[in-house]
Amino acid sequence: MFKLIALLLLCTGCGTLINETDPRTRIEGPVGAHVTVYDMDDALIAEGMSPIRPKLETGAGYFTKAEYRVVLSRGAEECTYYIKAKFSAWYLGNFALIGVGGIIGSLLIDPLTGGMFRLEDLYVYSMKGGPDA
Known about the structure:
Blueprint: H1 2-10, H2 14-18, E1 27-28, E2 34-38, E3 44-49, E4 59-61, E5 64-65, E6 67-74, E7 77-84, E8 86-87, H3 100-113, E9 117-118, E10 122-123
Parallel strand pairs: 1-10
Antiparallel strand pairs: 2-3, 2-6, 4-5, 6-7, 8-9
């Protein structure tokens, strides 16, 4: 049993073990703002009144970061923000594992699951002067 557990731990990616690959990302806008989240293909992922916590995947394919477009609207005001996955330093832990576990984690597990990336929450305090203004 111990050997099986040790083998499973050696064949996983550090980023996948530490980071959530589909975390609930907090998106918070001004009071009364409607939030709509789209993926890179413009598919609707989530919508609701601020704040929302949609499950967003960190990866979009092999060695590919996920990116989301967030539209906040309130009355006639509308602004667009982007949430982009960022590199996670936990991915580097694969290189500390000597042997098959490090190779499998760094070239297969973390790149496929998105474990080598992380997402940050989005907080918008004003509808004026957004990045698309």
